UniProtKB/TrEMBL annotation:
Organism: Leptospira ellinghausenii
Top-level taxonomic group: Bacteria
Record's protein name: DUF721 domain-containing protein
Pfam families: DciA
Amino acid sequence: MKKVELSELFQSLEKLGLDRESVFQDQILKKLRLQWNDIVGEVFGKQSYPKSIDGKKLTVVCRHSMVSQELEFQKSDLLQKINRITSPVLLEKIHFKTGNEFQNPRS
């Protein structure tokens, strides 16, 4: 098996239309989804999930407005926990969204 340099890998991804930042964001999002219950607790973990990362903003979809509101109260603590996981990439904002689009990818 041939060893591939990281720079070669990123060049290949760019040829496919993927940039380095989007690859890192996808991986961070997957990691957050896997650890979401540890971040917010099991009760809120079943009622919410990290949907997307856009720049330095994480969007979280919640099943009910009460869940959104409670997580909003915990926003600064959650951001600290999240940034321990995402380091060295640091997120600056969390947006909680309540909606019909709730389909937890982990359930």
